[in-house]
Amino acid sequence: MKEKRKISVRKILQVSFTLVASVCCVVAMVSASRIDDRKVVKSVAVHLKNDKKYHFIQEQQILDLAITDRGVDVEHTPIPLLNLHGMEQAIKADPWVAGAQVYVDNEKVLQVYVTQRIPVARIFQQDSKSYYLDTTLSIMPLSASNIYYTTVITNVPELKNDSASWALRKNIITLVRTIQADTFWNAQVAEVEVDSLGQFELLPILGDQKILFGDAVNIREKLANLFSFYKNVLNRIGWDKYEVLDVRFAGQVVATPSLPYNGPVDKVVTNMNWISSIVETEREKDSVKQEVHPSKPVIAKPLQKTVLKSKKEIAKKNDKKKKAKDLRKDKKTKNNKNNSKANNKQKSPKYVYPKKVH
After folding, report:
1. Is residue 157 scored above 80 in pLDDT?
2. Beta-bridge mates of residue 124
3. Is the pLDDT of residue 66 over 80?
4. % of the chain residues with pLDDT over 70
5. What is the largest CA-CA distance in the chain?
6. 301: Cα separation from own chain's centroid
7. CATH code for the structural domain at 43-116
8. Kind and range of the H or E element at 85?
9. Taking a C-beta distance cutoff of 8 angstroms, is the pair 102, 111 a contact?
10. Which CATH number fits domain 121-257: 1.20.120.80, 3.10.520.10, 3.10.129.10, 3.40.50.11690?
11. 46 to 49, 59, 231: CA distances (angstroms)
């Protein structure tokens, strides 16, 4: 016959204790979860980055995007039922928001962290549409409550989602950020214009020149060459001497002088008088150049602007010239008469008287 196994009381107690403890843990966890399911958010804290410098979005707007506009009752909605991901997506949908993060901490406080976009350039398209470009090359609309002053880019073609538009966006941001990083150029450049080839032209504050800058390659070298030209040339001969400055070529600045003439002061003066004045001025310059001795060095001076005279002054000047011409003519005629008399005296025959015959 088989021997009967002895049942250990100790083992029975251990198993029973383990079962009871497990049941108690499960009950406690269920109870705790049920209690947590009934807890709601105590408060909401909004943290807005760059709020002191940029004011395109306010805290109340963020609360409206995440809670009010979505119809969420934070005070009575249990925490597990809150759609935190939906709140984040609603905040990120705003064009002025770069990023958002929403969560509930241990103190049952709904934490909302929002980062604003940073505008870099103000764009004016060829169709007069205007907006901002940020550091991520994204388009940001204008704000009805705030205006941000930054570098202006004009004559920009419509920016689409093709490769050419993205390349132009990148070149614009690269050029603008380089200009803004330099104190002098940030104060000197008033506007950047985009030409038909997608290249840039700078319009300065000091001086009336148009600066042909080209593409966004070797930006620092081009600005250094232009600064050297400002310092060594324009400071000596004047800032209005040249009309166009071309820095597109490596290691040089090509300067095109402007016309040194103003328009007629008197509107009655005709175009022919305008042209005649230019021709007369050029003749006077040529006569002055002929009087300069070739052995002496000629010092180049800035061209002076010629102010056209009125019609009366021109007529008066012509009368003076005519009188002087008549006087010279009369004097010449008188001299010719005197010379003819003297010649006649010399040519007159001398009479020989015959001797008396005794």
Report:
1. yes
2. 130
3. yes
4. 67
5. 226
6. 33
7. 3.10.20.310
8. helix 84-92
9. yes
10. 3.40.50.11690
11. 10, 6, 51
- The tens digit of pLDDT for each residue in 159-169 reads 988 999 999 99
For residue 267, what pLDDT is reported?
A: 39
Where residue 34 falls among pLDDT bands split at 50, 70, 90?
low
Tell me if 92 sits within 8 A of 62, measured CB to CB: no
| Average pLDDT taken over every residue of the chain | 76
CA–CA distance, 132 with 151 (Å, rounded to integer): 10
Return the closest-CA partner of residue 190 out of 198, 181, 201, 199: 201
* Nearest by Cα to 201 from 184, 187, 216, 186: 216
Nearest CA to 153 out of 184, 181, 174 is that of: 174
Tell if the pTM clears 0.70, that is, is over it: no
Residue 129: pLDDT band (50, 70, 90) is: very high
| CATH 3.10.20.310 segments of the chain | 43-116
For the record, the structure tokens of 12 come out as 């029975």
* Residue ranges, CATH 3.40.50.11690, the chain: 121-257
- What's the CA gap between 197 and 211, in Å, rounded? 15
In angstroms, rounded to a whole number, what is the distance separating the alpha carbons of residues 222 and 173? 17
